[in-house]
Structures are given as structure tokens and as C-alpha cells.
Amino acid sequence: MRINKLIFKNIASYKGEHELNFDTLLLRQSGIFLISGNTGSGKSTILDCITLALYARVYRLGKKIVDIISKGETSAYVKLTFTISGKIYESFVELNVKNIETPKSMLLNCFFDNKIIEGRTDVLEHIKSLCRLDFNQFCQTVILPQGNFQEFLTSTPKEKAAIIDNIFNLKKYDNLEFYLKSDFERTKFNIDKLLNSESYEKSILDYDESECKSLKGYLDLVDIDRLEIDLENIRRAISLCNQAIASNERYLGLEIEMSSLNDQLSSQIKYLNSLEKDHSLQKELKENLDLDRKVYLCSDFWSLKNLVAVQGELFNDIGLLDLELSKVMNNLEEIKDLYSNDFNFNYVKELYNKNCNLFNLKLVENDYQSLLLRKNSLEDEKKELLRSQSKKNDEIKSISSEKSNFDFDKYVYYEALKLFQTFNDELISKYRDRLEFLLKSTDKEDFNKNKEKNIIKIDLYKELLKYLDDKNFSIESDKEKLKYIEAEYKNYQHKDKLSLCSLKELYALNSKLHLIQNQIDELKYQLSCRQEEISKQEVNALEFEKNNAEILRLIGKNLFDKYINYFDREKILAFENKLEKLEQFKAKKKDLKIEISLKNKNFDQNLLKIKDLLLKLNLNLSFNDYSSLEREFNVVLAKQKSVENEWNMLVLNLKNLEDLKIKTETQIKFTKESILTLKARLNEEQNNFINLISNLKNVFFSSFSFESITDLEQINKNSLSFLQKLSLSISSKLEFLSRDIEKYKIKLLNFQTLQKKINQQKINLDSIRGELNLAKERKDKLDVLRKVVIRSSGLKYYVQTFLINDILRLANEKYLRWIFPDFELKTNKESKEFDFLIEDKKDVNKIRTVKTLSGGEKFLVSLALSLALSDKIRDSELKIEAFFLDEGFGNLDEDTLAQVMPKLSKFQMMTGRQIGIISHVSYLKEMIKAQIVINKISKISYIAIENL
To answer: Is the pTM of this model over 0.90?
Structure first.
């Protein structure tokens, strides 16, 4: 939070309208500023205006706000501009003598969205939600009024507890018993409700189970086994027919593939022959180029190449020396003309330094453009993330749609079949053991006594075992049909995991969007600040142009263009250096002439050596000048390079041709092996086709009649059309069988639906019982907790102790260890009272009361404690950039002030906040340069911002 501007009218001794801008460059750049003036001039009134605009309250006046209006005036107002989280707000409050206690008229203008909030209640609630601080917390965090600064350190234990209760709203713990009792009654009512639900669900479940038992008895009377056997035979015939069709198609495909491989083998052999022919031609060309390369590889040619390079270096050195000599001559001429006049370089340098400082301020506009580009880039990134978010949402919807297609009822039925089969197996084992026991005991006397009864038991056991075996066969058949459901269930679980991963990715996208939005808001605030600074710097442009014109008049246009550069201060230093080195330039002129003469001599000697080598190598080059020699020699080098490139290309081509030959030979070998493999597969497929036709004939002869059984004897590899017609004919017989079992399936479906309903009812009943157990457990815990809280009076004291210890920890670790490392704040552990003690490490860790501190020590320890309390109060996301200290510095002597002020500066550097000090002490006026001076003339106060 930052206070930007304060405008007020007719407040206390300030008659008329007054404006105080805290965003001026002087106040923002200074870490600490002073609000100074004589006693009673109205220094603390500035803080009263801030709290009045934000909370409609004045710390020193209590409820009677009307007393702050200037005498003789009937109305007053305060307008405060402040910034929170990069967003600018303006609060307006109007006072009238008719409203004695509270102002009625309040407005809040939100500049970022042009929204205006009216009404005292709405404005105060909105400001409190923005600051996340109430009035008392604001006075402990942003402003420290008179009499409140050292209050927390020096107050009595009861007063400390009252301060903690008031700031952190600990009165809520007094009402804890009421809340626990209400929660206990709600839980008790919920238990009664769950008991009624349990009774209702149990009655419905009993009725449905009786209906399910009746329906199962009906299904057991239907013999479906015969129908299933017939259906299985027809399906087997269809399967064999389809397998024969697929085998026939594979056989024909293999024949086509073998024909293609034979054609491929023929083309590969032709390609190998062409490669061998190309290889012989390339080899002959390489041998011819080897003869041309010998000339360029001899030592004389390399010596010639080095001499030409040396000649070029000499030519360039001579040119550079001539250029440097020309520069020295120009510098001598330039300095000579300027030196003869009555020229004051220090005055020119002073004007240049002023313009450099003004020029650096112009860079704010470039900074503004870079911030604007950064903001636009972040907004584009935000749009891209929004598109990704939309795609991820569509992906989650698609996965949810695919999950809903899974037939969960079939999976439940499949699992039920497995359980039912296990139950049947146990019954079969049980009754078989009883039957064997009866059969073994036929010769015993006990058996003969109840012979007729035992014979009936044996017959019943046999019938029951036969029935259970038939039922097992039916269950096994249904399980085979539904075996595919296991794979579908695994796929369903996989989709569930995908959905979870997509949700995590969507959460990451939302987090990133939130971070980017925060960065955009921060950039908007920086842009508004840069815009204001640009407008302020326009005033400096006129002074910059005036200084520029004066420099141009003194040194002339040529020297101005050459040496006056505000990007490069080195040029003005070079100009100053030239004025001091006139004699050095003269000596350098003489040395350069001697060096140029020596270079020309070496150039002529090297040229004679080049001529001798050219005659030896029989090369005809021009010697008119170095440029023509270099140009013609470059042609020779280009020819050498061309020969080398062509030779390297031929070597590479020969290698590639050899690789292609090896590759083609390998391919030919592989193709031949593939042809042999295909022949083996053809034989295997033909045998498979014959076996399938044989099995199909057996099915026809054993299961049902067929009009054209004799046609099966004539089937061969070209009978694909006949097999397809046969498959269609067999498939048509399924319709007749389906009609016979349709009625059974309807009954079975009703049975399955009822079973599913019963299972769901059992789940609901278990869920209700689970909730009932949790509610009973919660009721017991609430009862115990309620009794503990009612009988105990230490909960609020525990919270107070925790908060005070944490505040002392923050004060010690974050502030005192930097400014007073020998001091550490503690509480009296031997007492339950909140007595503050100080441990002095210099004095052998002696623990003493805070009342023994000197004035300066008490001031800084109180400030550290207040800042720690401020850190504890404020929201961690609320950045407070400034605070005001309205404390009686007049009670401190100059020695104490000399001790306090460096420590206070250290506080400012640690926290990074802007500190405003309200005082009339002369010593502070000398130490703090940035001041807001309050002058009171004829009982009327005036404000001025000064840099002393």
C-alpha cells in the first residue's frame, strides 16, 4: 500500500485548500523525509487527514469528528489518492458542522475500472477489504500516532493483553462454547435423520430380495442348455467358414507378393550392372586429375603463396601508416586552431556534464516502450494459455464421454457369474461327498433300517448333482461370452487415470494464468509511473537545447559533431587528452614517416622474390600494381581450389558407388531369401486351408443338413466366391434360433436388473451406516471438547501467549539482531503475566526490565517491536511501502539522536519502506534534507516541500 497524494480543505489550522504530493521525485528518492514545523503548527493533522479519508476516524478525537473543522468554517473535505496492488484509488470524505460524530458523505473512485462507490458504509467496507486492516491495525502498521509508539513496550501486562485482544479480535474465543453447543445439537439431529433413513432402506431391500427369489425360481424351470448348444454349433460353422475365406485370401495375397519379389530381383540385378559401369568411368577421371594436382602441391607454389600474402600485409601496413599519419596531421591542425584562441575547456566540460545528466533522464521513454512491449507479450501469452485451457477442457469432456460408454452392468454380471460358479462348485463337492457316504454305507445295518428313506436321498442327491452340473455348464458359457468385458474394464480404468492427469494439467494452466495476470497488473502500474516521469522531464528539454547551443558556439560545428556524444563520454575525454598532447603528436609524426620508408623498402625486396618464383613455375602475372597481382594470383588459387574440389568429389563418388554396390548385393541376397520364405508360407497356408475345409465338412455332417454338401468336395484356392455365399447362408439360420431364446433373455434381463438394484440398495445401506458411525463418533468428540472448553479458561490465554511470543521472535530475528545484536527481547517465564524483559549479551547475558533502557535504546527497541507487530498484523500479500512516525523526538538529547538516526536509516534500508518523521527538533532538520515544512502564520498553516 502507498499514499500518493493528499488534498484537504478547512481542516484544523489549514484554512482553504491544500495539496501534499508524496509522489514527488524528492520524497520518493529519499529514504527518510521529515515533516517539520513549530509545536502546534499542524504536523500531526496530516496523519489525521489520512485516517479520516480511509476510516472516517481521527485517532486523537474519538467520535467527535466535527472538532477537526477549522474555526469559523461550516464544512471541510479530504481527498486521498492511494495505490494497492498496482491499482489506484481516490477516497473523498466531506464534513459538516451539522454532523457532529460521523461524516455522511463519502465516495471511492476506482481509476482502473472507472467504478465509483457511494455511501459511507459501502466505502468503509470496500476500503477495509482492500487494505485488509481495520482502524487500530492501520495505526499500528502505516502510521504511529503520538503516545502510541512506545505503548506496547512500556504498558502493563493487562494493557498488553488488551492491545492484543483489540488488534487480533480475540473476543471470538469467548463465544466458542456457544458454537460447540450448536454443532453438537446439529450432529444429534443428523443421527436421528440417518436412523430413519436406515430403517426405510432396510424395508425396501427385504421386499426386492423376495421378488428376486421368485424370479430366479421361474428361470430355473427353463432348459436353455439345448438352445445354447445349437447356437454354438452354428457359430462354429460360421467361424470355420470365415477362417477358410481369410486363409484363401492370404494364399492369393502371398502369390501376388511372390510375383512382385521376382520383378524386384530382376530390377536389382540390372541396377548392379549399371553401378559397376559408373565406377570404372569415375576411376579413370580421378587418375587424370592426379596429374594436375602435382603442380599445386609442390613447395615452390606454397612459397609463392606465402610471399604474395606477405606482400599484401606490407601493402596494408603502408596504407594504415599513411592513414595514421594523416590523422596525426589532422589532429595537429585541429588542436593548433583551437589552442590559439582564448578557449576555456573546463566551461565546455561543465555544460557537457549537465547535458549528460539531462540526457539520461530521457531514457525513461525507452523504458516505457519496453514495459509496454512486455505487457503486450504477457497478454499474448495469456491468450495462448486460455486457448490451451479450452483445449484441455474439451479433452476432459471427451474422456468423460468415452467413460460413460462403458457397460458397467455387464461387468457386474460377469463378476457375479464368477462368484456364482464358485458357490456351485462348493455345493457339488458337498453333495457328492454325502452321496458317496450313503453309497458306501449300503451294507451297514443303519442303512437298512431307513432303507427307503436313504434310497430317496440317493436319488435326490443324484438329481441335484445333475442339475448343478448343468447349471455350471450354463455359467461357463455365459462367462466365455462376456470375457471381453475384462479388457474393456481395464480401458475404463485407463481413461479414469487420463482424466486425473488432464485435471492436474488444467490446474497448472490456471496457476500460470493467475501468475501472468499479476505480472500484467504490476506492469500497468509501472507504465502509469513512467508516463508521469516522462511528462515531468519535458521541462528539462529546453535547458538541454540551451546548453547544446552554447557548446556549439564555443567549439564550432566540426568539433561538436566529432566529440560531443552523450552516449559516449570517452569522446570528450579524448578531446581533453588531445589538448594536453600537442608535443606528443609532433614526435609521432616524425616516427610514422620513418616507419613508412622502411615498409616501402621491404615491399620492393619481396616483389623481386615473387618475380623469380613466377618464372620458375611458368606463371604469367601482371606487376603493374599490388591489386592486379593479387587479383590474378587469386584466379590461380581459384583454379587450384576447383581442381581440389573436383578431385575430392570424385573420391567421394567412388566411395559412394562402392557402398551402393555392397548394398545392392545385400538386397539381392535378401530378396532371394524372402522368395524362399514365401514359398514355405504358401505351402503352410495351403495345408491350413485344407484342414479348415475338412473341419467344416465334419460340422455339416454332424450338426445339420445342407443343400449343396457335395459342392464342398470341389473347393480349391479359387473358391473364394463360393465360400462367401456359404457364410451368408449359414448366418441366416441364426435368426430362427434367436427367436427361441428371446423370451428367456427378457426374463434374464429382468432378473439382472433386480439384482443390480439390490446391490445398489446394499451399497446405500452400508453408506448410511458409515455416515451414522461417523456422526456418532463426531458427537462423542464434540461432547468431550465442549466439556473441556467449558471447564477450561486458558484457551484465550494460550492464543495471547502464542501471538506475543511470535511478535517478540520477529522483533529479535528480523530487526534487533541487525541494529542491537547485543539485545534480545524476552518474556518473564516465571510469571503468567506478560512482562517484557531485555537480555543484554554485553553484560554476561544479564536479564533486566525494559524500564532500565536509555532513551535512545528504548526508542529503537520500541520501533523494532512496533515493526514486528506490524508484520504480524498485515496480510503477507499486502506490501506496505511507507509508514509515518509521529513521536516526541523532543524528549531525546542530541547524543541520543546521533545514536538513533543511523539505526533508523538502517531500519529504512532493511525494510525498503519510505519513512516519514514528524518532529520540530532542529537537529533532525540538519540531518534530514528532504522536508515537508509546515509554517503557521496568523493561526493559518501552510505546506512547502523543500530540499535543504
So the answer is: no
